[in-house]
Amino acid sequence: MAPYISAKRKGIHITNLTRTARFLSEACDLVFDAASRRKQFLIVGTKNKAADSVARAAIRARCHYVNKKWLGGILTNWSTTETRLQKFRDLRMEQKTGRLNRLPKGDAARLKRQLTHLQTYLGGIKYMTGLPDIVIIVDQQEEYTALRECMTLGIPTICLIDTNCDPDLADISIPTNDDAIASIRLILNKLVFAICEGRSSYIRNP
Amino acid sequence: MAATVTASTLSSAASLSIRTKPRLSIPKPIKSFLYSKSPQFLSLSSHPTTITRAQSSDIDTSFFDNVNPEDVIVFDPPSPPEDFVPPPSFDEGPIETEEEIAAAYEELYGPAFSGESILGNDVYVMDSKVKKTTGFGSKGKKEKIRDGFEERVVQVRRVTKVVKGGKQLHFRAIVVVGNKQGQVGVGVGKAKEVIAAVLKSAVNARRNIVTVPMTKYSTFPHRSEGDYGAAKVMLRPASPGTGVIAGGAVRIVLEMAGVENALGKQIGSKNALNNARATVVAVLKMRQFRDVARERGIPMEELWK
To answer: B198 by DSSP, 3-state: which?
Structure first.
């Protein structure tokens, strides 16, 4: 990470913002192009500071997201995840048609608990039909499992990297401060804007 | 920062993880996207191509040659054009109702697994697309021969795990999968029944497939040795008409690869799985003469002296 650090003041590393800006613009280009080709994105961010902004950013960009804990094997064990998503969908249908009220209390309570469980963990990926094409990861140390899964499957990744992370693992690593909500929001803003632009450019000329 | 450095950044980043399938290539120079609205067109190939081995020239670390970590670098972004309005962040902007969000998602992806359909699509659309994993009575046998790969079972063994209540029996199947055109894979699978174990191992085998370098007479370019565990295998090319002269696991791997003339010997352990893996290791070490000559920059005749 030494090339990406510009100075060290009072024991804190200051990232070199020119390089960050360059990597960010590369990432935006990539994301814009992918969005204009109708690729599917997945944003992963489970830090409790960042969870809320990740969800909102993803909803704004109409992408899938993982907000709460990344269950191991979401991508590598996609067939099992699909089973869970089917169960989620069936439970939602039952809730909408009102079948849950007709069951005895114990069963209804159990099913409702399952529903909330699935909603928290899989709520963001319920529109995902297959493996995503690009994955954006907010903190490499926190989401190491997610990064490893994408690497084994060969999915391109964009990762926000802090000074204690390995920049060679992801495809495009953007050196930032991943502990500050403001910096995460800035990067996500730019990427989300790029995705939206890409999608609208597809609509204009497919 | 020169624009050409960006390509090498990405290639260095992409090629350092060798075991994955080839990633995107982003060759073009970058204008600062932050203020310009014109897109750059990058080449993205998201479908998996054949697995290539990383050459030593792929790893391009020249990005770091001119980088001095102690440089004082001034941040000097280009100024935005006059009519530039920064886009609203995702927090501001109109608050969308749940219905609008659901409608937008459904327009993009279809109803998928959400359980509700606002645009009137069929909610159960994913049922036909999701492959039903094996259940008794479903069409489990239909998935035998797909995508052109032939399977052959090398060994099926009954293995035991001793627990407090008694012995738990499983079957372990080793299967070699290959088309006869130079692609093979060795897989292991365990299950409580033989057929299930064979299916699992076939799936596993399809996941680690290697290409065998072959000459036009269906033999190897040169000798090679490979070892895995205590099993050591020696492979040697042979003239046409010889056939595959090798024992057990090695013979099956070579036959499924489409190699017609070869000699092979199991030196060391005779364990079937380890010998199959050792042949794969040996085959991975082989290079075609053309590639070596190209890498070293010398004509092919020099290699045979």
So the answer is: helix
Distance from CA of A105 to the nearest CA of B (A): 23
| Alpha-carbon gap, residue B176 to B196, rounded angstroms | 16
Instruction: Say if residues B63 and B9 touch (Cβ distance below 8 Å).
Output: yes
How far, in Å, CA of B176 to CA of B149, rounded? 10
Pairing of strands B224-228, B231-237: antiparallel
**Chain B nearest CA to A74, separation (Å):** 15
| A18 Cβ under 8 Å from any chain B Cβ | yes
Residues 109-148 of B with CB under 8 A from A: 109-110, 112-116, 123, 126-127, 129-131, 133
Q: Are B149 and B177 in contact (CB under 8 A)?
A: yes
**ipTM of the shown complex:** 0.78
Paired strand residues for B175: B153, B187
CA distance A69 to A123: 12
CA distances to A92, A123, A187, B157 from B123, rounded to whole Å, are 11, 16, 35, 45
CB-CB under 8 Å, B101 with A126: no
Chain A residues 108-147 within an 8 A CB cutoff of chain B: 126-129, 133
Asked whether the beta carbons of residue B13 and residue A128 sit closer than 8 angstroms, the reply is: no
| Residue A139 DSSP code | -
Q: Do A189 and B89 lie within an 8 Å CB cutoff? A: yes
Among candidates A195, A205, A116, A171, which has minimal Cα distance to B6? A171
Q: What is the mean pLDDT of chain A?
A: 87
Q: Which residue of A has its CA nearest to B98?
A: A59
Cross-chain Cβ contact B34/A189 below 8 Å: no
List, for residues A108-161, the tens digit of each pLDDT value.
Answer: 889 889 999 988 898 888 888 888 999 999 888 888 999 999 998 989 999 998
**What confidence tens digit (pLDDT) does each residue in B159-211 have?**
999 999 999 999 999 999 998 888 999 999 999 999 999 999 999 999 899 99
The strand ranges marked E within chain B are: 150-163, 166-179, 183-191, 209-211, 224-228, 231-237, 244-245, 262-268
Give the range with max mean pLDDT: A109-113, B11-15, B59-63, B129-133.
A109-113
> How far is Cα A151 from Cα A111, in angstroms, rounded to an integer?
35
Q: Residue A6 and residue A15: Cα distance in Å, rounded?
A: 5
Which pair of tokens denotes residue B10? 């990405």
Question: B300: Cβ–Cβ under 8 A, 6 or more apart, which residues?
Answer: B289, B290, B293
8 Å CB contact of B113 and A185: no
Cβ contacts of B110 on chain A, cutoff 8 Å: 127, 129
